[in-house]
Each structure stands twice: as structure tokens, then as C-alpha cells.
Design brief:
Length: 366
Amino acid sequence: MNPVIEKIIAMFKGMSLSRKVALGIMTMAMIAGFTTMFIWANKTEFKVAFSGLTKEDAALVVEKLKESNTPHRLTGDGTTIMVPEPVVYDVRLTMAKDGIPKGGHVGFEIFDKTEFGTTDFVQNINKTRAIQGELARTITAFNEVKSARVMIVMPKDSVFVEEIKKPSASILLELNSDLEKEKVTAIAHLVASAIQDLTPKEVTIVDTAGRILFEGKSEEEQAKINAGNLADAQYQHKIRFEENLTKRIQTMLERIVGKDKAIVRVTSEMDFSQDDMNEEIFDPFERGGEFVRSKKNRSEKLVAQSEETPVPSTVNPIVGDENLQDKQNNELTDKKDDTFNYEISKRVREVRKPMAVLTRLSVAAV
């Protein structure tokens, strides 16, 4: 046996029991540490490649990953797919080349493979499906929208003007959080602008909780809403004016009587009527006299002459025309036409009242 090994065995036998136990624990700890380091160094870290997928898109992604033998994990009820960190971007680019994920909707890629003999009816149906899918994908770009579904109703063409109907659209939204009113209106106008002859008042938006987020209003209903908004704006303007004036007066009094020792109340009456006056004034004498803009003269003169018809000689008579008269007359015509165009001054004035005119102000101070 090797002398070194024999020496180590002899030293181990000469140790006390407590030292043997401590040495064994230290050796096991070192082995466990090296094993953990080896496993950690060779561990594959997974990162999220896709999240929030529909079941259809998740199935397509998994199928492509299996074909390429790429390791993957499914989390989040199958809606999140994780792949090794070094290949995350490669996987995303490869899927994007194949048009995956599709968002659970069919877009204009439906026309990439057109079968021979497809009828116009099928083409129109596919066109409607493509528009619905593209709009749904666009709407899901909002962070507050988890998924969207767009339904479009296209009326049939008619040769009679009275029977022409406008298209309509309905949108179902699954939200991650509440949408602001401005964004809901933006979605309605987005859909209306993408479809010919569709107006926002023919668009209805609801969410999966059953709330109506946007409903097209008629002109009368919209006028009532605008009137209500105008009344609210006028009231808020009046309140802000009174509060501002109250604060300024109270601050001035508190400098004299002390802080919190003055009470001020202000009440105002305002005229919110809107009067627009357009006025055109014509004053021919504003420039101090007449001003000829253009002048046109025209004259015509014709002199009248009278001649006697000669009498035939008896020696060499000449028979004249029976239609000839004894006298030939030319009338005298004299015409004169003068046209003058005068420049007239013109002033256009537009007067518009401000939003509110203060008619009465009451101030009380204690």
C-alpha cells in the first residue's frame, strides 16, 4: 500500500470520535457544495417567449417548437410559453415569419391561399372575416384590452335608394383594467373609419362584464348630451370664479384682522347666452368723395342721305326696274352710352360675446 495512504489511515484512526464526525460532516458538505455548483453551472434558464396566448396560438407555437426540437415549458394555464434564454429571440423571429401568434383571429392572410373556383359570396365572407380580425388585433394593442372580438354587419346592395341601409358593428372587449372614456371613443371611431359608410353612431362596444361602454347616439340624443355637458361646464366656470374671488378677498382681510378671523361669501350671476353679430357697412362717402373704379363710353352715329331716281331719256330710253322707288332714303342714327362703376367702401365686423358675462356680484364678509 502507498505509504501516503497508510499515513492518512493511521492519522484517521488516531483521531477522537468527535474529530472523526466533524471531518465526515465537512467532507459531505464539500461534496454537496461541488455537486450544487456543477448542477447550477449546467442549469438551463428559461425565459418567457410568449404570454397571454389564446389556446389556438399556444397550440401552434408548441407544434412548431416540437418540430424544431426546442425545449419549452408551459405555464399560466397554457397561455405562457417559456424557452431557453439563448434561443428566445430566435424562436420569436421564427414564429413571426410564420405569422404566429395570430391573436386568435384571421386577418388578410386568409387570401394568401386562394382556391380556384371560389365564388363571390365566399370572397365577400372572407373579406369581412379579414377586416374583423385585423380590427380585433389593432384593438388588442391597447394595454387595457386583453382580447377583442369585432362583428360587422354589411347590408345587401340595393338598386333602390330608399332601401339602402348603413353597415353596423359591435365590439366585445375583455379588459385587464377599465378603459378611459376617450379611449373607448377612439376605438369606436377607429372601427368606423375602417369600414365604408359606417358612422360611430352605428357602433356598439360592450365588455365581458355586460357593461355598455359605447353606444351610438342619434342626433337628438347627442344634442341632449352636448347640452348637459355645456350646462356642467358653465356651472363649473361659475363655481371657479366665485371660489377664486372668495380666496382673494379672504386673504386680503386676514392680513388685517388675522388668520382664520374672516369669513367671505361670494355669489355671482352670469349671462352665458352666446350672441354672434356679423355686420357689413357700406359707406360711399368714407373716402371723402366718389372714386370711379371703371368707365365705359360707347357712341354710334349714322348720317341720313336722300337721292332721286334718274328719269330715262326719250332718245335712248332705259327701262328701269319696277321695284325701284322714286327716292332712296338713308336714316341718321346717333347713339351714346356711358357706364361708370364707382368703388364703395366696405367694412366687415364680427362681434362675439365671451363665454360668460358677469351681470351681478354679491359679496358678504364677516
